[in-house]
From TrEMBL:
Biased composition (Pro residues): 124-152
InterPro entries, A to Z: Cupredoxin (IPR008972), Phytocyanin-like (IPR039391), Phytocyanin_dom (IPR003245)
Name of this protein: Uclacyanin-3-like
Key word Cytoplasm present: no
Gene that specifies this protein: LOC111474381
Gene Ontology CC annotations of this record: plasma membrane
Amino acid sequence: MVMKVAVVFVFLVAVRAVYGADIVVGGDSGWSQGFDYGTWAAGQVFKVGDSLVFNYGGSHSVAEVNEASYKACSSTSVIRSHTGGSTSIPLSATGPRYFLCPTLGHCSSGMKLQINVVAANATPTPPGTTPPANTPPADTPPADTPPSPPSPSAGSSGFISLNQLIFGASIACFTALFVL
Ligand SMILES: [Cu+2]
């Protein structure tokens, strides 16, 4: 039983990996007025194989248009129009896609969505982050660093000089004692 569940789970994960994700436009806000789809889209990655899911009320619909119509909020030359409250649009090719709500006044008040579809195997860089820079190999081999003098010799050299000083002083004292 557990094995069966595990197999189904792996299968579902694999299916999701192959067929991509359902991206709900606007998230919980859906396709509606008073939502900033530009900001929303900037935080999303749209890949080939994903699907755009539009959820909307009866006063709205979805029209796919070209760039010029998108910029002008014009719905006179619609590539594809969708109605019915829930529309899933598969993203089958890379490049920009433009959508708007053709209801009068809705596009100009923000109901417009522009996305850029990237290849499924593309590794996107989220906005605000820089791609990892190639770290250059260390060009200074460790052999170049001069060998540090062993610390015991430095200590003993000081010890020797002190010894020599004591030895010299004692010789001088001895000599003076002898002379006097
Ligand atoms: Cu609308």
